[in-house]
Amino acid sequence: MSRTLYSLIFTLCMPLILLRLLYRARKAPAYRKRWHERFALGGDVRPGGIWVHAVSVGESIAAAPLVRQLLRSYPHLPLTITCMTPTGSEQIRKLFGDQVGHAYLPYDLPWLQRRFIKRLRPHIGIIMETELWPNMVREAKDQGIPLVLANARLSERSARGYRRISWLVEPMFAALDWVAVQTQAEAMRFERLGVSPDAMQVTGSIKFDLQPEPEIVQQAAALRATWGQRPVWIAASTHAGEDEQVLAAHREVLAAHPEALLILVPRHPERFDDVAELIETAGMPMVRRSSEATPAATDQVFLGDSMGELMMLYGCADVAFIGGTLAAHGGHNYLEPAALGLPIISGPHRYNFAEISELLEGAGALRQVRDAKTLAAAVSEWLEQPEAARRAGAAGQGVVQDNQGALERLLKGIAQRLK
Fold this sequence. Notes:
Blueprint: H1 2-27, E1 50-53, H2 57-73, E2 79-83, H3 86-96, E3 101-104, H4 110-120, E4 124-128, H5 134-142, E5 147-152, H6 156-164, H7 166-174, E6 178-181, H8 184-192, E7 200-202, H9 214-225, E8 232-238, H10 243-256, E9 261-266, H11 272-281, E10 286-288, E11 301-303, H12 310-314, E12 319-322, H13 335-339, E13 344-346, H14 354-362, E14 366-368, H15 372-384, H16 386-402, H17 406-417
Parallel strand pairs: 1-2, 1-4, 2-3, 4-5, 5-6, 6-7, 8-9, 8-12, 9-11, 10-11, 12-13, 13-14
Helix pairs in contact: 2-3, 4-5, 5-7, 10-15
C-alpha cells in the first residue's frame, strides 16, 4: 500500500516534474534533450550485463575506478551506466566513451522501471552511494536482479529525513542484497532504516582509492608553468551564496599577495555565466577556461567553466577550498585535493563527508573556517608558509594512502553476487 500511494503521488506530480525540467532547461539546454529516455524509451542500453547507476557528476567520478575494474574483470559482460543529469551524462561519456552503454534512469514509476529493467536484463545492479528509488528497487527484486549499494554513505541529516518516511523506505532498504558502506557510523544508520546487518559490510570509501592519472598531473604542471611563480588557490565546487564570499576573501588575499590568482570552479555549469558576472561586478580581471586563453599577469581570477577538469585544476593550485561548506550543502569530495598533496580549507557545513573531513582535520591536512575573513586568513597563512603547507598536504596524502583498499573489498563482494 505504501508504494502504491507513493506511485500515485509521483504520477500526480508528473506535470510539475516536467515543468521543473523545462525551467532547468532555460539555463541548461541539455535538459530539453533525450526526454524519451526518462520514460524508458531508447538510450544506449546494453542488455545481459552489469548495470551501474550514478546520479550525477560526483557519483560518476567516484564510480570511475570501479567501472574500469569491472571492464577489465568481466570483458565478456556489457556494462551500462545510468544517471539523472546532463552533467553526469557528459561526464560518463567523457570518462568512458563507447566502452559502456549509457542512458538516463527513467522516472520512478513502476511501469517505467519495469520496462527499463526488462530491456536491460542485468546480471547485477550496482547503485552508487545512496541513489535509491522505491519502485526501481522493487522492480529489480521482482525480476530477480541482485542489488548492491556501493560506496554507501548516509549522513545523520539524511537519515532523519528517511525516518520521516520510514513507511516507504524501510521495505526498500530491506530489499537490498548487499550494502558496502563507508563507515561504521553510517552502517548503524542504515541498520536503523531496515538494512540487515548480514547484508552489510563496512568497506571504506572507494574515493580513497583515487590515483591521480599521470597525464592529468602533467597537464596541470604544463598549465601552471604558463602562469609564472605567482601564488594560486582554488575554490572548487562552489554554490550560490559562496562565490561572493570567495571573491571577498580573494580581495583580502590580494591585499597581502598582489600577484595571487584564484581558480574559481562553480559546482553547476548553468551558473558559469552568473558567476562570471559576479567576478566582473567585483572588478576583478578574469579569464575563462572555456576561452582557452592563458591568464595574464594582471588577471586575478581564472574561472573554471569547463567539465571534467577539476582534478587537473586542483593540480594547478597551492591551496584548496572545498565548496558547499560555507553554504549549507554538506561539502564535496575532499580526497581529490588531498591525493594531490594540497592543504585543504573547509567551511563548517561538511556533513556529507563528516568522517573523511575529520580524518583529514585530525591529521593536520584540513582547516575549518567560518566566513570570508577567516577564509582569507587561512589562504594567506598557507601561502606565506610553504613548508607548513607542504607538511599539511603530505599529511592529507598519508590519510588517503592509509585508507585505501575499499575498491578491492567492493569488487570481491560484487563478484560473490554476480550471476
